[in-house]
Known about the structure:
The chain is built from nine helices and six strands. The protein has helices spanning 3-24, 89-95, 107-110, 112-127, 162-174, 176-181, 192-201, 212-216, 219-223; strands at 28-29, 38-43, 48-54, 61-62, 137-140, 147-150. The model has no long low-confidence stretch (mean pLDDT 83).
Amino acid sequence: MCCGVLCCDCCFQIATSTLTTFVLFVFLFCSDIKPDNILIEYDESNQRFNSIKLIDFGSSIDVQNIVDHHGNLITSHLPSSTTPEYVSPELYRAREGAYGQTGGMTCDDCINPDMWALGSVMMEIVSGFPLWFPYKSRIPREGRKDYWMMKGGLLAVGARKPQAICRKQVHISENLTETLKKCPGRGLSKDRMAMHFLNQMLTVDPHQRVRPAEQLEHPWLRDVVL
């Protein structure tokens, strides 16, 4: 299986499995979705995924416990032991007092940081490079003798400062396709339907970000050819 097809297959399988979990556990905010917490059993001889499991719910919380009756995020209830590059912009802003203190958040909105995190995992697969990786790297191009030169992961910043990560998240969200064209990964950046699927999860405004049940009905999950 070529890298492009495997990349597409992996994103498809992870998205379908994880979105189904979100729908089944609708009031659970996992809060620490990242590649390390997604276990994949892949049968290389038959070129198929046997299972995909979401693990490590130690930081999870009932979404009804993180929004008050005014619709504000209760920042003291938000988990702190999470991986910075997969945390959604609204959680960063809430912790800094710049978002979530004017009301309007609902329990339905509070599942959406997990949607952002899942989108970040898929973006990492598509980019072909860890989001957090801090070093310049030279990556061989498949079937060629030259290299991709990477300055670091898409969200790599000094000291992993939340404000700097958040600024990069917003920029990437607004320029997703162009950003991924500059990365060594293959398989989805030229697929308009796949980019629409990913953009819906990486929408900065949590009110506008797609919900899990809606995303399971996305045409890309129905029409993708593996």
